[in-house]
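To fix ideas, we now present one chain and its tokenised fold:
***
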Amino acid sequence: MKKLYLFIKAISVASLLILAAQADVSTPSIFGDHMVLQRNQENPVWGWGAPREKVTVTIAGQRHSTQADRNGDWNVTLDPLPAGGPHRLAIQGKNTLNYDDVLVGEVWICSGQSNMAWPVQNSFDGDLVALSAKSSQVRLISVPQVGTQEPQRDFDGEWAHSSPEIVSQFSAVGYRFGLQLHQALGVPVGLVDNAWGGSAAEAWIRRDALESDKRYAELIDRWEETERTFDFEKETAQYQADLAKWEKDGKKGNRPRTPRNILAGQHRPGNLYNGVLKPTIGYGIKGAIWYQGEANASRAYQYRHLFPLMIQHWRDEWGQGDFPFYWVQLADFRDEVSEPGDADWAELREAQTMTMSKLPNTGEAVIIDVGEGRDIHPRDKRTVAARLARWALAKDYGYDIRYQSPTYKSMNVDGSKVILTFDHVGANGLYTFDTREPVGFAIAGSDQKFVWASGKIVDANTVEVWSDSVKKPVAVRYAWAHNPVCNVTSREGLPLTPFRTDNWPGVTVDKHK
């Protein structure tokens, strides 16, 4: 009986300690020392404490009080602050949190898959970039890779100054983008990196938003079947058996591959929304930059609506209106081809471009000229970041600079020739890099068989293309391949956006899973 009493007493003491810990006012890790708050807008601050606890938040002469709800959740909204600092953000309940060295400036989310996650140290001139990363005005925070179906309220991370050690591991595109903004604007910049290599767009969307849309029925059905049949413990046991046999046989051949728990990975619908994005949703931001699409290329037609859905979903969840969302179009990749043909990466690029006409405050950085055929991860992240920064500096900060790549506008057939006109050609019109003749155009008649076309720039926004083997052309394509050879740009060096004038069914038209 005495042992039972002591056991019950121990449990009671432990329970009281847990309740006491829960009573402490706390916040998610997106708030902390060295953070950057978005300037000139209201910014939510939230956290947890004891049920019905009074919480007071102060910063820069502001004072906001609230009461936690019955679950201990609380939130306040800060009045707009101008760029500057450092400030102290104090949060007082039964305990007090002091977050020091808080700056106010521009905050951007840096998201996507491996090309956004690609660190500074592995990019061209990454060593030089890291060596010079000593600005206390650029602050960085990274969100760990957690894939789950359970919404997370917090993550393991903290804000840091941009030191050589921190920057070398941070997103190369994200850091170079943020540094460009800081240098142009002269205000603090905060960057939140949550990219995960290989991630699929559907993983970044709340699962029920996909389940309620019939367009994703096949995708959800496939995952439900996987969830019913996948046994990670069984996969692990088989791996251990295979590994033991491999070692017993003298380690001949390839080492057995370590199994991955795909249920906790970056492809399962909703996993990254819950594990990576959710803990930061609501934090005051200016906008988001995005580099992803490789994982969805085999379902490019689906991406036509999946990608806009994802962007709108983020905006709805954030509750901050149609914040700017700029992405990187897929680079050139794989082998060059000798003849024109279809390609899923070309169709994915087309889907990305289409998104600009479906949602406001969106933009696309075209990088068809900086890819590497042998590597899905181009090392030139400076050009990528600069083209994203052009969009932000022009559209959001009022700078009079060229930001959008030339885009297809219209075509007119004149006998055996096609006259193409383009928008966004820059101040001095179209230009061809390296050779005087435009390269990358293909032309087809009603038989839908494309051949390479000759061409010439007629004037600032017009290109004429033709082929002696196509007497009655009906369609033109440009840079329509995984790794196209193409050379048309604006005089500012922004490459012509890949396009096609036809709507003939592509290779991914029936891919939905």
Q: What stands out?
A: Confidence is low (pLDDT under 50) at residues 1-21.
